[in-house]
Amino acid sequence: MKRSSFLIVAFMAMALFFTNDLSAQKFSGLDKSPADIVYLRTSRSAPPIAKVVYSRPQKKGRDIFGGLVAYDKVWRTGANEATEVTFYQDVKVGDANVKAGTYSLFSIPGKSQWTIILNSGLHQWGAYQHDASKDVAKITVDAGSDSDSLEAFSIAFKRAGDGAEMVLGWDTTRVAIPISM
User: What is the pTM of this model?
Assistant: First the structure.
């Protein structure tokens, strides 16, 4: 009898301990712009050619380009830390030769064209410390649109000819950045 009473008391104490421990985890202040990673591969089983790590801000009914994200000013191309692109081999981004390595991705959105910037400065919050002297590639691409509105800023790769395009999309804006291997 003593043993079963002891087991009941021990079980109740453990349940109380674990219940209090779990309820203490409130996870307040979770980031509202979750991070995402996208890869460029020639096939699912092939090693990656490129990897992009970025945060995905949400539209939330706001005017995005020309509103939340100003035209003609350097943008981190996402939220939080500047988006980072890793190329696992030398590539061409537009007409710019880019060596294998990791770069911050900045952009300067415009109404009809965007300037895309790869910068060697890493681990930057926003675009506040963007140093143009560290730009390794700077190209201009056309901005397009789509009838579908994207709630979250998104980056995807799509095959294009002998290369690929890194497509940036948010709200109805779409920007395709050509990449050749």
Answer: 0.82
- Residue positions counted in the chain: 181
Distance CA 56, CA 91 (A): 25
Domain boundaries, the chain: 37-180
* Cα 62 to Cα 58: distance, rounded to the nearest angstrom: 9
Residues of the chain with pLDDT under 50: 19, 21-22
Kindly state the tokens that stand for 116: 């895309």
Residue 123: which residues within 8 A CB-CB, separation 6 or more?
Answer: 81
Residue with token string 């920007």 = 175
Listing from the earlier edge strand, what are the strands of the sheet with 101-108?
A: 35-40, 50-55, 83-87, 101-108, 113-119, 135-160, 163-180, 91-93, 96-98
- Both tokens of 129, joined, read 């410390």
- Between CA 139 and CA 180 the distance in angstroms is 14
Residue with tokens 């709200």: 171
